[in-house]
Predict the 3D structure of the following.
Amino acid sequence: MCGIFGCILKNGNAAPIIHAGLKRLEYRGYDSVGEATIHENKLFIKKDEGQIDDVHTRRNLDNLPGRIGIGHTRWATHGAPYQANAHPHTDCTGQTAVVHNGVVENFMELRRELEELGHIFKSKTDSEVIPHLIEEKMKEGLPLSEALRETLNRLEGSYAIAVVSAEEPNKIFCARKESPLVVGVAEDAVYCASDIPAFLPLTNKAIIIKNGELTVLNDKGCETRKIADWTPVSREPEIISWTSKMAEKHGYPHFMLKEIYEQPLGLKDTLRLQESYLELMTAFLDRAGEVFLVACGTSYHACLAASYRFSKLAFLATHPIIASEFVEQHGRAVNIDSTILAVSQSGETADTLAAVEHARLRAATVLGLTNVIDSTLTRISRVYACQQSGPEVGVAATKTFTSQLSVLAQLALRLAKKRGKVSHVEIERLEEKLEHIPEIAGTMLQSQGEKIKQLAKKYRDAKCFFFLGRGISSATALEGRLKLLEIAYIPSIACPAGESKHGPISLIEPGFPVIFICPKDETHKTIIGNIMEMKARGASIIAIIEEGDEKIKSLVDDYIEIVKGVPDVLSPIIYVIPLQLFAYHMALERKCDPDKPRNLAKSVTVK
Ligand code: M6R
């Protein structure tokens, strides 16, 4: 989310080069844009809300003087996309400008502290604390690189930043922690950017800046140091052999695969939501007479999983409802005591918005969870949380689903704490597990990716699949089935495993593939019974199991293992990932384009 581009040219004007670089990063976000250049020891800035082309038409982004500059294309996380919130942000002196990608978790404390020292803030962003902190350190007499280092030591969260200053007009200062940053080296220029595609048409020599490093670009190239102990780092440029098309997708053949592999990072960002919003949402949920969880498609599956968590952890019964059915099913029951938690990645899904409008007319409280700040949902919600997954290009929702699950888990845990129904020890255990989920997702992707590809080869000709789970894994099963049918066009069935014997089992005949989602939770014993029922009828069983689950391994034809110790309430976040990958590889096996499934749109704005 958010794209950064900067350059120092030997000759010529930086602004048009920055503008073109930002255009190539537009897929990282596009709600506002800005550039800062340095010329004759002065800082020049242009920034505004809107997509790059619109802002350029209004303000001519190429018309800034100087051969050195930085730019930013924004994906709002803190503060709506309007001009003051666009990057670059400056300090009080107007000498130093900063662009930032990431989330400064402790920005509220830092802002308060800086305001007490007399700093005036112009935006609502977390990022603006950075130039003010630098200014404060420079007042103490530190050179910019050290002022920046001291500033970075105060930041909690993630960042990739680039800084220019009239104080040191021939340099760009960059640093990163978790958010990406790369340097491009050419004969006549040096670049910094969030991603390689931004400078690939200009140079194929890239130096990857690693976590915890600060690098200073100058006319000769760049000098890098470790932020922790200030030791110099020497790294030779790598030659990048990607074509521009490959680079857009980071070398992955499809956006969907790129987004599946982005999940560990996305899940980390999702753990950095602003506490105050979650706290407020928790308060509304706590005092609601009844709670409806309203969404469509994948977002509905996130709601379904959430309903199990609210019940198990906070002893709160909620109604997960498919948005297009909401008015018919519950319309008249909604009243001033009802709370609607609407979940929508895009924040623009017509069915979800229609349900929300209905609830608003009946004076219900509307809470929103979305990935797009300033979407309609954020505007009509009493309180909203942004899931911070960054733009998702693939039509099939992947990383945005696991992020939704993570935010909803955070909400359920907060509510559990507030209601005191579950012991503190248990809540702390779950919070700690949630912190480790990004890592577990990474391990899963690394260890099982190839096996899942082989599974897709084995089952490529299957005409239909069953997806079965019990408890919260019913939601995982539904999502696995949606992925497979929407991108590989395989008609499939999903239901709670216990329900299969009430009808669907009649479809089973020898060789019929059935995918079981089997975390080692309270449902484990019963699901073994369901596996036996299917096996007895000749089904081919594929199970997603916990590592070392010998009992299930001995019963099934194929299995995918997930590391031990994922608690049941968090299991959908991890157990769905192999199903996403399976659907992806099945689509490829069947020569379907996973990024562009037929008849579907990323955002469904009609009812
Ligand atoms: O933007 P939303 O979350 O409101 O979108 C809801 C559905 O349209 C969406 O999840 C859809 O089901 C996806 N294609 C699933 O991959």
